[in-house]
Amino acid sequence: MESPPAWPLYVYYGMSILSLPLYFGVLICLLRLRYFSKTYKTTFYTILLQHCIADIISMTVFTVIWAIRMLPGLKEFYFHYQEYYIAAGTYNSIYYFLYIRCAGIVFLSIHRYLVISAPTSRITMRIQEAATWQIVLVYWIVPTLISLIVLKDTDFHYDALETMEVVAPRAIITRNTLMALIIVALTCFICVLSYLALFLFLRKHSAGFSKNLQRELHLAFQVLALLCAFFVMFAYYIFQNYFSQTQNTGPIYTMRALYPIANGTLSYINPFCILLLNRDFSRQFMRTLKCEKVRVSEIQVSTVKSLSTQRK
């Protein structure tokens, strides 16, 4: 069997060197702001925080059990204890973290639609007033339940100590790639539908946006930019599913070699979206880098909460 190309992994290393420290900085800044300001304790930022954590954990796990599995000493350990879910975890974690981030972008997109188009509706108010622990549980439990189909598989092994490629039964590969394609496709469909509905709403109500509503709209653009990375993953799984269905094992391993780039794009685009499209956060991020005090107006709270206050 022809060895898969190694250059995608080097591209991934380059992406990680630049993006992972930046992502940690964004996460620390977000946690700091949540301590000082009510603005960053809203439902949107709670979901966004979970998405950031999921991205960082995903990249850390991927690097430890996949990207650096060829390091001397480490690969011998992995190979010797591969039956203790190491080989299975190397393969299954790819889908688990994919589904977590699919759920995250769906939650963010639907939240943007509800907050902007129906800020005083009962469902929006319940979402906005949900406790942090409730949001966290929903964010992680929903994709975990979906992933149980994948996580239960253990019939994996490394082909050889020299290559450390994970060998999986064709039936599992076919099922998982098809399932991933369907879930990513549904993710893109739901998110696009949410933004189309939001666009139609904005066309009908284009006049008289308040500052709070404009701020919520800016956050919607931030999520929309993040959604673009999911179309890259969608294209990836279209090809991966095609090759798995045609029983052509060579391209399957080639596509697996290209996965670090697709996965890195999916994760590492988020901090850039936040910093480039969220001006309020960007200013606070720069203050954090300079070790300056936080300056956040407590008036900058969610549109829903502002409207709710006005109605009382």
UniProtKB/TrEMBL annotation:
InterPro entries: 7TM_GPCR_serpentine_rcpt_Srv, GPCR_Rhodpsn_7TM, Neuropeptide-GPCR. Coiled coil: none annotated. Pfam families: 7TM_GPCR_Srv. One of its GO terms (cellular component) is membrane. The keyword Transmembrane applies. Gene3D superfamilies: Rhodopsin 7-helix transmembrane proteins. Its main location: membrane. The chain crosses the membrane at residues 12-31, 43-68, 88-110, 131-151, 178-198, 219-239, 259-277. It is found in: Membrane. PROSITE patterns: G_PROTEIN_RECEP_F1_2. Residues 25-274 form the G-protein coupled receptors family 1 profile domain. Keywords: Membrane, Receptor, Transmembrane, Transmembrane helix. The keyword Membrane applies. This is G-protein coupled receptors family 1 profile domain-containing protein. It comes from Caenorhabditis elegans.
